Amino acid sequence: MKIEKLTQSSIPAFKEYFKKHAHQQDESFPPLESFTINEDEPIYVLTNSGEISGAAALMIYPEYREAKTARFRIFHSKDGSKVSYNLLLNKILKHTQGLTSIYCFIEDKYSNITSIWEDIGFESRRFAWILERETSSFVKPEFPNGFELRTFRDGIDENSWCSIINEAFEHTLGHVRMTPQKIADWRIDPSYISGGMKILWHNEKPVATAAMIKEIVNGEEAIFIEAIAVLNSFQGKGLGKNILRAGIEFAKNYGAKKVMLSVNGENEKAAEMYFREGFRKESLYKCYYFDINS
Questions:
Q1: According to the 3-state scheme, what is the secondary structure of 212-243?
Q2: Do domains 2-121 and 132-284 have the same CATH topology?
């Protein structure tokens, strides 16, 4: 078994490895068609007889460096051994100067992996529920007078979107700054739906966001609602509830039978609202942190 830095020629094999194994962890950042080697994402792979048997890809883009943290795209070894995970971790740590921690999500049912992570120094500090419900029935959204939900306009609404997201999630553990570049990357992701990004306006002031993307769940296409954010000064008006209802309606009209979303475990207020709107728990993901120089 060898460990080496990913090369340009090995990217197709890395993509295939991600496709096969990332479902155990967090599939939020699949390598896109345009993916290439870059200094903001050190990637190491374990190889056995020329085939990839493990991978660690750490995203250290500028917005992560600002928060002094970094997020794994994938941190996985096929053989599930402590030795393999330690080899990958030790290589990745050479790229973490100036950071205070690195982290990765993993589905709770993979206790065989989490026990190894804990043995090598990772600690679970937060969690998120994946919720789902059917689209067969829903309550139509009704916004107060003066509010209008509009489709995101490319090349116009990027700064408004980022401002809302960054204010709404400013104090949320794990939040990194939303940027126009992230939106540009989002639009070339296979999960992106044209017209799926929405901004709620109040008298020409942008006050809330939501995005609908497509996911394949058990062989069927489902709609995942994300980026539900409301400016602090506009909370308590039922806007989040109606944005959610608009997302469910969007999913229904799109032809999806199921709609899903993620909610941080500590956000009890949001979770209660989702449950009242018919969502139920589908799976649990824990976020594991490794402290640098601890």
A1: EEEEEECCEEEEEEEEEEECHHHCCCCHHHHH
A2: yes
